[in-house]
Every structure is written in structure tokens, then in C-alpha cells.
Amino acid sequence: MHTFLDINVDVGEGLNNEAQFMPFISSCNIACGGHAGDFEIMTKNVKLAKQHHVKIGAHPSFPDKTHFGREIIEISSANLYTTLKKQIRSLLNVLIKEHLQLHHIKPHGALYNLAAKDKRTANIIIEVVKSIAYPIKLYAPYGSVIAKLASEQNIPVTFEAFADRHYNHDLSLVSRTNKNAVIIDTDKAIKHVEQIILGKVKTINGIEVKIKADTFCVHGDNPNAIQIIKGLKEHFG
Prior knowledge:
Helices cover about 40% and strands about 15% of the residues. It is built from 8 helices and 9 strands. The strands form 2 sheets. A 7-stranded parallel beta barrel has the order 1-2-3-4-5-6-9, surrounded by 4 helices. Strands 7-8 form a two-stranded antiparallel sheet. The radius of gyration is 17 Å and the shape is globular. This is 5-oxoprolinase subunit PxpA.
């Protein structure tokens, strides 16, 4: 199958393996201080992305380094807006130095999952996207609350699916507490992606559900991440 496949990876999260897969991906989401990442790490990843012509996105999260942004925290709308804006601004400062533009925003972890179903959270993220002076794409799951609200407000949405994660019937990701949550076999990941490209995904309970995807994420912390990324690139061209 020779379809151009947009592969994205979350980077700057302390794994320090970005140089291995950056040549094989199309876009990256750089942690900008909420759950991980600092000026030095952002700069390193921006330069790597620039070198390999990889589109750069901001990967803001709940301000929660303790739980790596993977838990919902109690935070007011105003404070959430302020921290997201500050995180994205810190990455923009690095991009300005490198004469690059921000391509997209992809929320991280619990924030991403909450915005997929919660209107308040989705609207705060949308207001942050709208506050940036030039058009920015939003990476969001198909059928999510945030994707629908963003489209209604003329924000370009890129539907994201996960090449290395299993799905529940409502298109939420199977919790990492489930031993079958993560796909680590390259051939299984390729089959999973092929099916999604055709518009369906087989959920954890074996039912096929409609889905759309413009970009596929592989998690950098997947023990087989490099092999999966190379396998997808080889298979899809």
C-alpha cells in the first residue's frame, strides 16, 4: 500500500531518543513545560525537527510534572488558559530564534482525553489556539467534542489516530492499566493503521467503529517505537 502516511511523535519528554526517529516522521509535538520539557530540551528538538524538515507542534498539558500530565487536576478556567498560553509561548520563543513557524497544537495526556469529551476544557484550548496571530492546526481525535467545536469556529482540525494503541467502543483509548492497551508488534501496528485508513477501527471488544485519521501518532515510550515507525514508513512509503 503506497499512501503517504503522516506520522507524528510526542517529543522532549525525557526519553532522549528523538534523533533515532526524527528522520522517519512528518510532524512532532514538543513538550513545552507543563508535564515535561524546558528551554534546552525544546531548543534541541526544534533544531532536530528543522534539520529533518519535520512540522513542529506544541504539546501543552495540565501543569503537573508529578503525574506527567496523565491525571486530571483541579484548575480554574482562567488558570488553565494562562498556563497553556505560557507553555505555547515558551516554544514560540524558541521557534522565533530558529526562524520557524508553529504548525499545530496537540494537547497532552489527560488534557487531550478530557477535551475530547468535555466542552469547558475544549473551549479553553480553542481560545488559546485563536489567540495566536496566525492560523494553527489543532490535532484532535475524530468525533471528539474539541474537534467539532474547533471546526465550528473555523480552526483547521487534523484528525489524529494512534498507531500503537487499542481503542474502546467510544473511540477513547484503552487505559494503560490494561495489559492490551499498547500495540508493540510492528505487523499488528501496520494492520491497525491499514484498517483506520479504510475508515474503521476494531475496538478492544472486537466491534468495528467508524474513524477518520489524517495523522498517526506513535508513542516515543513504546518499547518498540523505532521499529514501528520504520515499519510504517517502509510499508506506506
